[in-house]
Amino acid sequence: VLFKFPDPPLGSVVIRANLNLDLAQPQLDNLKTIWKQVPKVRGQGHYAHRMLFDGAGKLWISSGERQKFDPAQDLTSNLGKMIRLNDDGSLALDNPFQTQGDIAKQIWSLGHRNPLGMALDLKKQLWVVEMGPKGGDELNLIQKSKNYGYPIVSNGDHYSGVNIPDHATRPEFEAPKLDWTPVISPSSLIFYTGPMFPKWQNKAIIGGLSSEALIIVDTTVQPVKELQRIDMKERIRGLQQAKDGSIWVIEDGKHADLIQLLSH
């Protein structure tokens, strides 16, 4: 009889270290763990765990709910949250949940599902783009102490077919500024500031996986509006603006290409 033991619980950590380039083989010195996913869980879905330094002394970490649903609403867990720390990993004393436990002190907002793209606009406002369930991918403006509703509300439904009430039914939860059904499967987000593509200046650019597209969004209008969708014919994993204003695009998969977008 063969016994299959359950997979061990998994969780991510963020470390800081010094990169030592003085050795024949460079190494990391003075490693220190500054953040841990709590709790570890079985399965490998919805990590998110993107990081962003905001230039104002803070480190932001997007933490997915790991396909466990309810922890996104639990302030004793940092799953399904936007995490805000000082850039050395210490707790930010002006975070909103200071009296609700050590984990809660890390949290800036809650009720997130799988926030995979994170970027600051020109006003230094933080935006995230996150995968919804069956429908309801979201672009959210991240605000202090706000609850974005998952899994209580979503503009999509569970993959099982079970309905999730829409955001409009629960106005106490923060609704997305833009959502997509059918989904775009967002993977990444930048705000373009370069000279090479003038029509895209100050616009959000989102990389799409199942949509195999770049999605251009204007976040400065009310309501927020998708302006353009460019068919890339491959799943898009990541975006980065170069100093000259070109855009580097990395595809997703075993034979992924690295592409540089240039103007004509």
From TrEMBL:
This is PQQ-dependent sugar dehydrogenase. It comes from Acinetobacter johnsonii. It holds the Pfam family GSDH. Residues 12-259 form the Glucose/Sorbosone dehydrogenase domain. It comes from the Bacteria.
